[in-house]
User: Fold this.
Amino acid sequence: MTFRSLVLGLVCVAAPIAVRAQVVPQAAPAGQVRVGPRGDRLTGPEAGPVDIIMPHIIDSHSIELPYWGERELPRWKPVRIGSVAIDVSPTKHVVMLLVAAVLCMAVLIPAAITHERHHTARGSPKGFATGIEAMVLYIRNEVILPNVGPHGNAFVPFGLTLFFFILFANLLGLVPYGSTATGNISVTAMLAIVTFVVVEATGMKTQGWRYVRTVVYVPPKEIPFIMKLFMVPIMTVVEIIGKFTKPFALAVRLFANMTAGHVVLLALISLAFTFQSYFVGLAAATMGVGSSLLEIFVAFLQAYIFTILSCVFIGLMRSAAH
Amino acid sequence: MRTSLVASLLVLGNALPLAAQARPAEPPKLLTANGGLMFWTLVIFLGVMFILTKFAFKPITRAVEAREQALEDSIESAKRDREEAARLLEEHRKLVAQAHADAQRFIVEGRDAGEKVRAEILEQAHREQQQVLDRARQEIESERQKAMVELRRDTVNLAVRGASKVIEKNLDDETNRKVVESFLASLESVGNR
Assistant:
């Protein structure tokens, strides 16, 4: 009940925002009359060709807000660690990550509290908590536990956080004024590095000294000595490269999937302005709707894939037969 | 907990060389890594993981595990109850079968006993009948003997009286009597036959 009224309230707030939303004027072919988004004729220099796709995708130091328009985010002095300077001033994607984090907590923690109350009151959850429980249980029982191997309960919070955090970050790209933080290679790289560290730390903890065998290739006994001489350096390099390709693939997969969807969507919408035609506009809108629906699916799918692959890597490292 | 701490430290260490590549002065490109953003990603992710683990995943997992445990327990107890019931049923079946066998045995035994008693009664009746018959026969015999003796005495008396009447006239009593007695003795040996 409260959830439904919340959604209703959000819709009421969002409707005027959507109406007021400004569309960036589009380029028209030279020699023709330039038409703005509201049918007004544009003659000024601002009506020239503008790249709307890249600014939408890449990070920036400003953020668009409903009613306030575009706002500059504060700039802080770069933090110096030795000779390395890191600019830690917040960007659009940092804000989006924070929003995703807050949304995660705002959805999951009340659900957990309700879940626990229902559980003690009547033995089983009901309503929204059941849905959250179903998702949590699915990720726990079908994605994390079978892949990380036996006694993998310690990895459940990590996997669940990966899934929900990436999911919310993905979905934020699909709401007005939102931006896909997971469409930024820095974000996905950091998430992949976290996975990498977890995988390697797990390897060191569970394998002990045998962890070295996942770095240096140890040939089987039946291979002749001459062959070993060649095999060991080559295969060691392969092993080490293999260690880094996994998180690299994770990072690029998520980044590319999230970026590609937005590029496709924006390109489709731009078709209408490029051709200056209502028919093309209709077709573009139809395809845009389809593409957006696909994007919702991809948002879930990529969060799922990132989680399951992280768990598979952890499981591989824990069993480490290679 | 300790693992995540170690993980975060390692991640920081790993992030530094990558962060060094980022040039804050350059305009951001699609494929350039931004050290600040990476740092924030790490901080936010670890924060979310910590808070969600503590306040969301632990309670849900705990409740679900408790429920799984309860389900398992009830399944276990149901299984136990069913085994108990099966055992009782088996026991009852055995008892009923036992009772049937007992009843059958009782019937057979009863019939045998009845048969025996009947035979005994019949035999006794036969015996008694025989006894009665024998006694009757003996009585008849003895009565007959008695009657014969009586008849003989009467006959003797009659004969003696008749003869005495005759002999009174010619002979003395004593001599005549002897003659008659011997005659009767001869008669008796004939009559006994």
Q: What stands out?
A: The mean pLDDT of chain A is 83.
